[in-house]
Specification:
Mean pLDDT: 87
Strand order of the largest sheet: 5-7-8-9-6-10
Helix content: 55-70%
Structural class: alpha/beta
Largest sheet: 6 strands, parallel
Number of strands: 15
Shape: elongated
Length: 978
C-alpha cells in the first residue's frame, strides 16, 4: 500500500523511494480532500465544491468518477469506498503522516514521564515537512488547514513543556524565538521562552520577552497578558524557577478507606454497581444516593475494593462534604505527583491538569458525600478506562448520563444479620425483641449499627429494655447515639443544607404521622406558592421519598420514620394539617358513597362533611373510588387510631364499605378492635362490637358471633336505636342458620322485619334471605320460594346488578329445592352473570357454589367441579372459611368419583374438624356423609359404617337445603362414566 503525506506538499510514495506524480490539479485536489478526512465519509457535495469552487459542470458526476478511476490507476492499492454518505479513503495509521502525527502526540500525553513524552512529541513534529498541502490551494480545505496548523502549534507547546520539565531548556531558546516571531500573540510560547531564558541565566532577556508580549497585546488587542504569563514573569522577577520539574506520579495510587469486616447484605446493589462501573465504554458514572444513615459510603467503599483489579492504576477516594472544590483538586494533584508550586491557581486549570494526569489510565474515582453536581463534573476523568462512583444525600439530578442507584433500608433478613454480627448470638435467642429493635431502627444501617454497638459494649443490657426505649418516639433519637455516631446529627447535616422554604416544608411534614402522603396533601400541608419547589428540594436531598403514582394516579411521598422524628422535633406550626385531615375525611365519605354498600350494618347518622378541596381535584381523585381507598387504606387505618371515637367510627364505617366489599376482613377487624379499645362512649362501643360479631360470623365462629349479636341487640333495644338493632337482628338470624337453629332463625328474621318497619325503613334483601334459608331448613320449600320471588321482584325494581344477582341466587336455590331444575339453572346462571362485573366477590362466590351444587345434582359434573373450584379460590382470597370448606368438601367428593378417594380422606377429615369447631350441625353431618363414601371406596367398612351413623345422627329430615346439598355431593361421589 502507498504512503501519503499532507503535512507539507501533497506526497504519495508507492514502492519505498518511488514517488507517484499526479498530473492533474483536480486529481491532486480530490486526493487531498480524501486524505485530510481519512477514515471518514466525505459527502459528494463537499468533493464537488472542492473540485469546482466556481460551480460544477453538468457532467460533474461522471467527471468525479473519472478522477477517482485515474487515482486508482496511478496509486496501487488505493482503497476508496462509496456509500450512502459519500466517499471514504481507508488508510492504516502508519500510511498517512497526519495519522502518525496524531498518534504520536497522543502517546506523548499518555507518557508517564517528561523525557518519554518529549520523544513522542518530537516524533509527531517530525512528520511536518512544511505548511499543510503546500503548493495546492483548495478553498474548501482552508478551515481544515488552519485547524491542523493549530494542532501542530499546540503539540509543539506540549513538547516544550515536557522538555522544560526534563531540563532541556538550553536547546529550546532558538526554536522558541523563531516560533514566537511567527506567533507574537501566543502567550504560552512567550511564557515558555521566558522560562528557557531564565534557566539559561538570561533573566534580562526573559523580562524583555514579557515586555514585548505586553506591548504587542495592548497595542493590537487592548488587553494585558493572562494569568500564566504574569505568573512566570513574577517568578522570574523573584529569581525562582517558574516550573519545577514534575516528578512522575507513583502508580498505582490507592486511597480507599478499609472495607469493614461486618458489612452485611446489599448483594443486589453491589452487583449493580460493579456491573455499571466495570463497563469499558466511556467513563461510567454511578450516583449512589439515599437518606442519611442508609450506608452509602460503606457500600461505595465495599464496591470500590471489589473493583480494584479492574482499575490497576489506582483508586482515588475524595471526601467532598464541606470542602472547596479548588482545595480538593489541589490535594488530588499533589497525590498524583504534582508539586505545590506547579498546582495552577485557577480551578478550571487544576481540573484540566487532573484530567491530564488520568489520561488513558485505569483509575476508579470515589467521590463521597457530594453536594454540588458542578463539583462532580470538575472531577470527571476525560478518557475511557476510568470510572466514577459518587455518594450523595442528594440525587444530583443535574449530572447527565449518570446511572442512579437510590439506597433504601436493609431487608428484614439483612437487618437481623447485621444486628447479630454486632451484638452476638443473643440476637437470635431473643428474636422477638430483636425484631422490635429492627423495626424501631426502621432497618436503617446507621441506626442498627448504633443499637448493635450499644448492646455489644453493654452485655447486660437486655434486648427488651433497649427495644422499649427505642419504641418511645420521644426519646428514640436520643437512644440512637453511641460514641461519634448519631442518627440525629446525620439527619441534621442534610437539613442544614436546605433553603428556608424547604426547611419549613420539612418541619411541617414531620407533624404529619401518616404512612405516606399524596401530592395534593403535601402541597396543601405546606400551603405556600413555592410548595412544589420546596418538595422537590426535599426529594433531591433524600429527606423525602417520591414513590411514584398510586392506584388513583396521584403521586405519593414518604418520609422515613427516623427522619420524620427529627422533623417533628423542629416543628413550630401545623400549616395546613387540619385542612388535610378535613379533606381526607370528606374524601372518604364521598368515595364510600360511590361504592355499593355490601356490609350488612347501617352507617352512623351524620351530615355530609364539607370538602375544602377544589371540585376538579376531588373529581379526579375519586374518579375510581376503589383505587382511592386502595391508595389511602393504610393512612385511614392510622387516622382511625388517632381520631376521637365518634370521628373514628364514622371514618371506619366508610373504610369498611371498601374493606368488606373486597373481603379484607382481617384489616377491618383490627381497626374495629382499635376503636373498641379506645371507646369511652357506649354508642360507639356497641357499634364496634356489632361489626366485630359480623366478622366472626364470616369466619364461621358462629357461637361467639351469636352471643355478641344478642348482647348488642339488648343494648341497642335499651337505647331505642331501632335501625341498627334491626340490622344486628337480621345478622343474628343468618348466624343461627349456620348453627342449625332454623326455628329461632325464622323468628329472629320476623323480628328484624318488625324493627325495620318501626323506623319506616324498607326491609333489605338480607332479611328475606334469612327468612328463606330458615324456611328451607324447616322443609317449607314453597313458602321459601315465595319469599325469594318477592325479594327478586324488589331487587329488579332497583336496577342494581349486585342486588339482582343476590336475589337471583336465593330464587335459584329455592326453585331447585322445589324440583324446578330448569328455572333453577337459568336463575343461578343469570345471578353469576350479574355479579361477575361487580366488585361483590363474596356474593359471586356464593352464587358459584350454588351453581356447582345445581350442576352436580343435574348431572353436569364438569361444570360443577369448575364452579366449586372458582368459588373456593374466591372464598380463600376473602378469608370466608365456611364457604371455602364447603367448596373443598364438594371437590373432595368429586375426587371420590374420579377414583381418588384416598386423596380425599385427609382433606375431608380437616373439613370435619373445622366444621365441628364452628358448631355447624348440618355442615358437619354432610361432611360425615362424604367421608363415609370415601371410606367405603377405599374398603374401610368399619370407618364407613361409623361415618354413616354420624351423618344420620346429625341429619334433620326437615332440612330441604341439606337434602339438596346431600343430593349434589352424592352425585359427585358416583364413579365417573368413561
Amino acid at each position: 500500500m502507498a504512503h501519503f503525506g499532507v503535512l507539507g506538499p501533497l506526497a504519495v510514495e508507492g514502492a519505498p523511494g518511488h514517488w507517484v506524480a499526479l498530473r492533474g490539479e483536480r486529481q491532486r485536489t480530490l486526493l487531498a480532500v480524501l486524505l485530510v478526512n481519512a477514515g471518514q465519509y466525505v459527502h459528494v457535495d463537499v468533493l464537488v465544491e472542492a473540485l469546482w469552487p466556481g460551480g460544477p459542470p453538468k457532467s460533474y458526476t461522471s467527471n468525479l468518477h473519472t478522477y477517482l478511476s485515474r487515482l486508482r490507476e496511478r496509486i496501487d492499492g488505493l482503497r476508496v469506498e462509496h456509500g450512502p454518505l459519500g466517499y471514504r479513503l481507508r488508510v492504516e495509521p502508519g500510511e498517512l503522516d497526519l495519522l502518525v502525527f496524531r498518534a504520536a502526540a497522543a502517546e506523548g500525553k499518555r507518557a508517564g514521564d517528561a523525557v518519554a513524552a518529549a520523544a513522542h512529541y518530537r516524533r509527531a513534529l517530525a512528520q511536518w515537512r512544511g505548511p499543510v498541502l503546500a503548493g495546492l490551494h483548495v478553498p474548501r480545505l482552508d478551515a481544515d488547514v488552519a485547524r491542523l496548523e493549530s494542532e501542530r502549534l499546540a503539540v509543539f507547546e506540549d513538547c516544550v513543556d515536557a522538555e522544560l520539565t526534563a531540563g532541556r531548556h538550553g536547546e529550546l531558546t532558538g526554536e522558541l524565538q523563531a516560533m514566537i516571531t511567527e506567533h507574537p500573540l501566543r502567550e504560552r510560547l512567550a511564557a515558555q521562552l521566558m522560562i528557557a531564558l531564565h534557566r539559561a541565566g538570561r533573566q534580562g532577556d526573559a523580562l524583555e520577552v514579557y515586555r514585548r508580549l505586553r506591548t504587542t497585546l495592548i497595542e493590537e488587542l487592548g488587553v494585558e497578558p493572562g494569568a500564566e504569563a504574569r505568573r512566570v514573569h513574577a517568578a522570574v522577577l523573584r529569581g525562582e524557577d517558574p516550573v519545577p520539574r514534575l516528578p512522575p506520579p507513583v502508580w498505582p495510587v490507592c486511597q480507599l478507606p478499609p472495607d469493614i469486616g461486618d458489612f452485611t447484605g446489599r448483594d443486589a446493589e453491589l452487583a449493580e454497581l460493579t456491573g455499571v462501573l466495570g463497563d469499558d465504554r466511556g467513563v461510567p458514572l454511578a450516583v449512589l444516593s439515599g437518606e442519611p444513615g442508609a450506608g452509602k459510603s460503606t457500600l461505595a467503599v465495599r464496591a470500590a475494593h471489589r473493583l480494584r483489579a479492574r482499575f490497576p492504576d489506582g483508586q482515588l477516594y475524595v471526601p467532598l462534604a464541606g470542602r472547596d472544590i479548588g482545595e480538593v483538586l489541589a490535594d488530588l494533584l499533589r497525590a498524583l505527583g504534582v508539586p505545590g508550586p506547579a498546582v495552577p491557581d485557577d480551578v478550571r486549570a487544576r481540573a484540566a491538569v487532573f484530567r491530564g494526569r488520568l489520561t488513558d489510565r485505569r483509575v476508579l474515582v470515589v467521590l463521597d458525600d457530594a453536594v454540588d453536581p458542578g463539583d462532580v463534573r470538575a472531577l470527571l476523568p476525560g478518557t475511557p478506562g476510568c470510572a466514577v462512583l459518587v455518594t450523595s444525600r442528594r440525587r444530583l439530578s443535574g449530572l447527565a448520563g449518570a446511572h442512579r442507584l437510590p439506597l433504601g433500608p436493609l431487608s428484614g433478613a439483612d437487618a437481623a444479620e447485621l444486628l447479630n454480627r454486632l451484638a452476638g448470638a443473643r440476637v437470635a435467642r431473643e428474636r422477638a425483641d430483636a425484631e422490635r429493635i429492627i423495626a424501631a431502627c426502621a432497618r436503617l444501617p446507621l441506626a442498627l449499627r448504633i443499637a448493635g454497638s450499644r448492646l455489644a459494649i453493654r452485655p447486660h443490657l437486655r434486648l427488651d429494655e433497649l427495644a422499649g426505649r427505642l419504641e418511645d418516639e420521644v426519646r428514640r433519637l436520643d437512644e440512637l447515639t453511641v460514641s461519634d455516631l448519631a442518627v440525629r446529627s446525620s439527619i441534621a447535616l442534610s437539613y442544614e443544607g436546605l433553603r428556608p422554604p424547604a426547611r419549613r416544608a420539612f418541619r411541617l411534614l414531620g407533624r404529619c404521622r401518616l404512612a405516606d402522603l399524596p401530592a395534593w396533601a403535601v402541597t396543601t400541608l405546606v400551603g405556600t406558592p413555592d410548595a412544589d419547589e420546596a418538595v422537590e428540594e426535599l426529594v433531591e436531598a433524600s429527606l423525602l421519598e417520591a414513590r411514584g403514582a398510586d392506584p388513583s394516579g396521584e403521586g405519593r411521598y414518604r418520609m422515613h420514620d427516623l427522619v420524620r422524628l427529627y422533623a417533628a422535633e423542629l416543628a413550630e406550626d401545623t400549616g395546613g394539617l387540619r385542612t388535610v385531615l378535613s379533606a381526607t375525611l370528606a374524601l372518604a365519605d364521598a368515595a364510600a358513597s360511590r361504592l355499593p354498600r355490601t356490609v350488612p350494618m347501617p352507617p352512623p347518622a351524620a351530615a355530609p362533611l364539607p370538602q375544602p378541596l377544589p371540585e376538579d381535584l376531588v373529581a379526579r381523585l375519586l374518579a375510581r373510588p376503589d383505587d382511592w381507598f386502595a391508595a389511602e387504606r393504610a393512612n385511614l387505618v392510622l387516622l382511625i387510631g388517632w381520631l376521637p371515637a365518634p370521628e373514628a367510627v364514622r371514618l371506619l364505617d366508610k373504610l369498611s364499605v371498601y374493606l368488606y366489599l373486597h373481603g379484607q376482613y382481617a384489616e377491618m377487624r383490627a381497626a374495629y378492635e382499635t376503636v373498641l379499645a379506645a371507646a369511652d362512649d357506649p354508642a360507639v362501643a356497641v357499634l364496634a362490637e356489632a361489626n366485630l360479631a359480623l366478622l366472626r360470623h364470616e369466619r364461621g365462629q358462629y357461637e361467639e358471633a351469636a352471643a355478641t349479636y344478642r348482647q348488642c341487640a339488648k343494648e341497642l333495644e335499651a337505647r331505642r336505636e331501632h335501625h341498627t338493632h334491626a340490622w344486628v337482628t337480621a345478622n343474628l338470624a343468618h348466624c343461627l342458620i349456620g348453627l342449625g337453629d332454623a326455628e329461632e332463625a325464622l323468628e329472629t328474621a320476623a323480628h328484624a322485619r318488625e324493627l325495620f318497619t318501626m323506623d319506616g325503613q324498607p326491609e333489605p334483601i338480607r332479611v328475606r334471605s334469612a327468612e328463606s334459608a330458615a324456611l328451607l331448613r324447616l322443609g317449607r320449600v314453597a313458602e321459601a320460594r315465595d319469599v325469594d320471588a318477592i325479594a327478586l321482584t324488589a331487587a329488579r325494581e332497583t336496577g342494581d346488578a349486585r342486588q339482582i344477582g343476590t336475589a337471583l341466587h336465593g330464587f335459584a336455590w329455592s326453585s331447585f329445592l322445589t324440583g324446578d331444575d330448569p328455572h333453577a339453572a337459568a336463575a343461578i346462571a343469570e345471578s353469576v352473570d350479574h355479579l361477575r362485573p361487580t366488585p361483590a366477590r363474596s356474593e359471586l362466590a356464593k352464587s358459584l357454589r350454588t351453581a356447582g351444587a345445581i350442576s352436580a345434582a343435574t348431572g353436569n359434573r364438569e361444570h360443577a367441579m369448575a364452579a366449586f373450584g372458582e368459588a373456593r379460590e374466591l372464598a380463600r382470597e376473602l378469608d370466608e372459611r365456611p364457604r371455602e370448606l364447603s367448596c373443598t368438601r364438594a371437590l373432595a367428593a368429586g375426587w371420590i368419583g374420579e377414583g381418588r378417594a384416598a386423596q380425599a380422606i385427609p382433606v375431608l377429615q380437616q373439613c370435619l374438624t373445622e366444621f365441628r369447631e364452628m358448631g355447624g350441625r348440618s355442615a358437619t353431618g354432610l361432611t360425615w356423609l362424604v367421608l363415609g363414601r370415601a371410606y367405603d371406596a377405599t374398603g374401610d367398612a368399619a370407618a364407613a359404617e361409623e361415618a354413616a351413623a354420624e351423618a344420620a345422627r346429625l341429619t334433620d329430615p326437615r332440612d330441604a337445603s341439606a337434602a339438596a346439598v346431600r343430593r349434589a355431593l352424592l352425585a359427585l361421589t358416583e364413579p365417573v362414566q368413561e
